[in-house]
C-alpha cells in the first residue's frame, strides 16, 4: 500500500501526485478484480481526504507566519521613527551647549597654569635658602660620617631645580634676565655635585676588593647611581651615571695592570705577572657579581677589560715574527695561559673563547712552529739512524746478537720515540683542541715520511749479494723489519700517552691519525722490506735454478725440489731472527707467490726465446735472462742447439705435462708439510688453482678451453693474454683462427672485470 510521505508545496502539486498514483493503480493487472478494486478505491479516497486536511493545515501555518512577520516589521518601522526623533532632539541640545564646550578648553589651561604657579611658589621658598642648604650639605659631607643616600636625595632636589631653571632660560629668552638672577644662587651647587660623585665613584676603582671587604658600601654606592640615573630618566635626559660607573671600573683595572706589570719587559714576564687576573676573576664571580644589578653584566665587563689589558701588551710581541721564531717556547706558554684562563671561565660558568685575537695570532704562527718541530724530528731521526748504522749495524754486533740469541734489534726505534715523547711532555699539556690535533698530525706525518725515505735509501744501498767481511743483506733486512716492528709497538705506546692529553671530543681523531699515518706508514715500510727480502731469497734461485726450467736439465734433475730446499733453508734462519710471526707469515706467502709467478715468467720467456711469442712480454722477476754465455765464441751455434732441445720438450705434451704436474705436487706438498700455517689454506688453494689451470690448458681437450678461460683473469692477472698465447702455441690441435677466437674471448673477459 502506498504511504504518503512527501510534504507538498501547493495544491496543484498534491493533485498531480494523486493523479499519478491513480494511473499506476489502474495500469496494474493485479487490481483488475472488481472487489479488490473497490477496496483499493476506498483506501485511496480515505488517503485523499487525509491529504487534503494536511494541505489545508500547511496553508494555514504559512498564513500565520506571514502575519507574525508583518507585525514585527511594523514594530521596526515605529522604532526607527522614534530614533530619528531622539537624534533630532540631541542635535538641538548640543547646539545650545556649543559655547560651553569652547570655554571648557580655556578652563583646562587656566587650571594647568594654576598648578604650575603653585609648584613654582613652593620651589621659590626653597630657592631663597639654597645657599644655606648647600653649605649644610657640604659641612655634613666634609665630616666624613654622613648618610650618603639622604644627602644624595637633597642633592637631586637642588639639581632638579637648577636644571629646570636652566631649561627655562634656554626656552624663554624674554625671561632670561630674571631667571639668571635666581640661577646665580646655584653656582656653588655644581662644585659640591662634582665632589660628591667623585667620592661616590672612588670605591669603584677597586671594585673586586670592595665587594669582598666593603660589600654594603659598594651596594649603597650602586643604589645611589641607580637613583641618579632614574632621576635623569624622569626628566628624559641621557643616563650618564651608570656609564661613568663602568668607565671608573675599567679605569681601576687599567691602573691595577699598570702597577702589577710595570717591570714586565717581554711576553714571558707579562704572562707570569698577569697570573693574578685568574684569581681576580674567580673573586669577581664569587663576590662582585652578587653586589651588582644584573643589567650591569659586571663579570663580562671585568673579564673584557682584563682581556684588553693582556692583549694590548702581548699582541705587539706577536707582531714581531723574528722574536716569535727565536722563542717558540713563549708561543706555547701563551697558548697554555689562554687555555688555562678559558678553563677557569668554564668552571665559573662562562662558556666562551675570550682571547680570540690572541689565539688567532698564535695559530698564524703554528705552521712555522710545526716546521720547526718537523725539522727537529727529521734531524734527530736522521742522526739516530746514522749513528745506529755506524755503531749497531756492524758485523761484530749482529753476529753477537745472533750467537747469543738476543733479539735482532738496534736502538734507533727507542731513541726516536723517546725524543717524540719528550716533545709531548713539553707540548702536550699546552696544546689543546684543533691545535693539538694538527700538531700530532704533523709529527706523525713527518716521522712516517722521514722513515719511509730512510727505508728506501737503505733498500737502494743494500748489496744484492753477501760480501766477505760484511753483514749478510738478508740479516740486515730482517734487522730493519724488526726495528720497524718495534717502531710500531712504540708508536702505540706514544698514542696511549697522547690520549692522556685529549678529551673525548678529539681522542678518536688522534687515534685515527696514529693509525693512518704511523701504523699505516710502518706497515708500508715493512711490506717494502719483506718484498726486498723475498727478492734476496730468490737471487740464488734465479741464478742457479730458474733459468734451467723447461730445458733438458729440467727433465733430468728435480729443479723445483732444489729451489724449495733453498727457500726452506733461508726461511728457517729468518724464522729464528724475525720477531713478529705475522711478518714472517707474510714473507713466506710472498716467497711462494713469487715462486709461482717466476715459474710462469720462465715458461713465457722460454717460449719467447724459441718462438718469438708472446710479443711485448718482458719478465719482471727473472734476473738471469741468458740461455747461452754471452762470451762464448760459439754462441750462435749453442743458442741454436739450445732452442732445438727446448723445442723438442715444449712441443711434446707427454714430456711437459707430467713434469709440470710433478712440479705442482712438490710445491703444494712443501706448503702442506712445512708452511701451511704461514701460507694459509686459502692461498694454498689459489696456488693449486693457478698451476692446475696452466697444466689443464696445455693438456685437456679443446672442449674444456672455454671453461678454463673463465679462470685466467684471476689466476694469471697481467700475464693472462701471454699465458693463453703460449698455451695455444704448445697445443698441436689449434689453428690460427681458433687461436684468434680464444684470444678475443679472453680479452673480453679481462675488459669486463
From TrEMBL:
<dbReference type="GO" id="GO:0000149">
    <property type="term" value="F:SNARE binding"/>
</dbReference>
<dbReference type="InterPro" id="IPR010326">
    <property type="entry name" value="EXOC3/Sec6"/>
</dbReference>
<dbReference type="GO" id="GO:0051601">
    <property type="term" value="P:exocyst localization"/>
</dbReference>
<dbReference type="GO" id="GO:0000145">
    <property type="term" value="C:exocyst"/>
</dbReference>
<dbReference type="GO" id="GO:0006887">
    <property type="term" value="P:exocytosis"/>
</dbReference>
<dbReference type="Pfam" id="PF06046">
    <property type="entry name" value="Sec6"/>
</dbReference>
<protein>
    <recommendedName>
        <fullName>Exocyst complex component Sec6</fullName>
    </recommendedName>
</protein>
Amino acid at each position: 500500500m502506498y504511504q504518503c510521505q512527501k510534504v507538498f508545496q501547493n495544491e496543484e502539486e498534491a493533485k498531480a501526485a494523486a493523479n499519478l498514483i491513480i494511473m499506476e493503480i489502474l495500469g496494474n493487472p493485479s487490481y483488475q478484480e472488481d472487489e479488490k478494486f473497490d477496496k483499493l478505491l476506498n483506501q485511496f479516497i480515505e488517503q485523499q481526504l487525509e491529504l487534503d486536511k494536511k494541505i489545508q493545515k500547511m496553508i494555514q501555518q504559512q498564513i500565520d507566519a506571514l502575519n507574525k512577520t508583518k507585525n514585527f516589521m511594523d514594530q521596526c518601522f515605529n522604532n526607527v521613527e522614534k530614533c530619528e526623533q531622539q537624534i533630532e532632539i540631541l542635535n538641538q541640545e548640543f547646539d545650545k551647549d556649543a559655547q560651553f564646550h569652547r570655554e571648557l578648553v580655556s578652563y583646562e589651561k587656566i587650571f594647568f597654569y594654576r598648578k604650575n604657579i603653585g609648584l613654582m611658589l613652593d620651589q621659590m621658598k626653597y630657592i631663597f635658602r639654597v645657599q644655606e642648604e648647600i653649605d649644610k650639605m657640604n659641612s655634613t659631607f666634609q665630616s666624613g660620617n654622613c648618610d650618603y643616600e639622604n644627602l644624595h636625595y637633597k642633592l637631586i632636589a637642588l639639581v632638579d631645580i637648577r636644571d629646570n631653571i636652566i631649561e627655562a632660560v634656554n626656552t624663554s629668552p624674554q625671561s632670561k634676565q630674571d631667571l639668571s638672577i635666581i640661577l646665580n644662587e646655584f653656582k656653588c651647587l655644581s662644585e659640591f655635585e662634582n665632589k660628591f660623585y667623585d667620592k661616590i665613584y672612588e670605591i669603584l676603582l677597586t671594585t673586586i676588593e670592595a665587594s669582598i671587604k666593603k660589600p654594603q658600601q659598594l651596594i649603597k654606592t650602586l643604589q645611589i647611581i641607580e637613583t641618579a640615573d632614574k632621576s635623569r630618566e624622569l626628566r628624559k635626559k641621557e643616563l650618564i651615571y651608570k656609564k661613568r660607573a663602568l668607565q671608573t671600573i675599567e679605569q681601576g683595572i687599567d691602573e691595577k695592570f699598570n702597577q702589577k706589570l710595570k717591570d714586565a719587559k717581554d711576553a714571558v714576564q707579562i704572562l707570569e705577572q698577569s697570573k693574578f687576573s685568574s684569581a681576580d676573576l674567580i673573586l669577581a664571580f664569587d663576590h662582585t657579581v652578587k653586589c651588582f644589578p644584573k643589567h650591569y653584566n659586571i663579570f663580562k665587563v671585568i673579564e673584557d677589560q682584563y682581556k684588553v689589558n693582556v692583549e694590548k701588551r702581548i699582541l705587539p710581541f706577536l707582531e714581531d715574527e723574528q722574536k716569535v721564531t727565536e722563542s717558540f717556547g713563549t708561543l706555547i706558554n701563551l697558548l697554555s695561559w689562554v687555555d688555562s684562563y678559558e678553563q677557569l671561565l668554564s668552571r665559573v660558568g662562562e662558556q666562551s673563547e675570550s682571547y680570540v685575537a690572541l689565539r688567532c695570532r698564535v695559530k698564524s704562527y703554528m705552521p712555522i712552529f710545526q716546521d720547526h718541530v718537523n725539522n727537529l724530528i727529521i734531524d734527530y731521526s736522521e742522526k739516530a739512524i746514522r749513528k745506529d748504522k755506524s755503531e749497531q749495524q756492524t758485523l761484530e754486533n749482529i753476529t753477537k746478537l745472533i750467537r747469543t740469541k738476543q733479539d735482532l734489534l738496534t736502538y734507533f726505534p727507542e731513541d726516536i720515540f723517546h725524543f717524540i715523547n719528550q716533545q709531548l711532555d713539553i707540548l702536550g699539556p699546552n696544546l689543546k683542541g684543533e691545535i693539538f690535533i694538527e700538531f700530532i698530525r704533523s709529527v706523525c706525518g713527518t716521522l712516517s715520511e722521514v722513515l719511509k725515505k730512510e727505508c728506501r735509501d737503505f733498500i737502494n744501498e743494500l748489496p744484492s749479494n753477501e760480501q766477505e767481511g760484511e753483514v749478510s743483506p738478508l740479516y740486515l733486512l730482517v734487522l730493519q723489519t724488526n726495528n720497524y716492528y718495534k717502531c710500531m709497538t712504540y708508536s702505540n705506546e706514544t698514542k696511549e700517552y697522547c690520549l692522556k692529553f685529549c678529551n673525548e671530543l678529539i681522542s678518536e681523531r688522534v687515534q685515527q691519525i696514529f693509525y693512518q699515518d704511523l701504523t699505516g706508514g710502518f706497515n708500508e715500510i715493512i711490506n717494502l722490506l719483506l718484498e726486498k727480502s723475498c727478492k734476496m731469497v730468490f737471487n740464488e734461485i734465479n741464478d742457479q735454478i730458474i733459468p734451467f726450467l723447461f730445458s733438458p736439465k729440467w727433465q733430468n734433475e728435480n729443479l723445483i725440489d732444489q729451489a724449495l730446499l733453498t727457500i726452506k733453508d733461508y726461511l728457517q734462519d729468518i724464522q729464528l731472527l724475525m720477531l713478529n710471526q705475522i711478518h714472517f707469515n707474510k714473507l713466506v706467502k710472498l716467497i711462494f707467490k713469487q715462486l709461482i709467478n717466476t715459474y710462469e715468467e720462465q715458461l713465457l720467456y722460454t717460449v719467447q726465446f724459441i718462438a718469438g711469442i708472446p710479443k711485448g712480454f718482458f719478465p719482471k722477476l727473472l734476473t738471469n735472462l741468458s740461455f747461452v754465455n754471452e762470451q762464448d765464441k760459439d754462441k750462435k751455434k749453442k743458442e741454436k742447439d739450445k732452442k732445438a732441445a727446448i723445442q723438442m720438450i715444449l712441443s711434446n705434451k707427454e714430456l711437459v705435462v707430467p713434469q709440470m704436474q710433478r712440479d705442482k705436487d712438490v710445491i703444494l706438498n712443501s706448503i702442506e708439510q712445512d708452511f701451511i700455517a704461514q701460507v694459509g689454506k686459502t692461498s694454498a688453494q689459489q696456488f693449486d688453482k693457478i698451476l692446475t689451470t696452466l697444466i689443464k690448458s696445455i693438456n685437456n681437450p679443446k672442449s674444456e678451453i672455454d671453461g678454463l678461460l673463465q679462470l685466467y683473469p684471476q689466476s694469471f692477472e697481467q700475464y693472462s693474454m701471454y699465458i693463453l698465447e703460449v698455451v695455444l702455441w704448445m697445443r698441436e690441435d689449434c689453428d690460427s683462427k681458433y687461436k684468434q677466437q680464444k684470444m678475443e674471448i679472453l680479452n673480453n673477459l679481462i675488459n669486463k672485470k
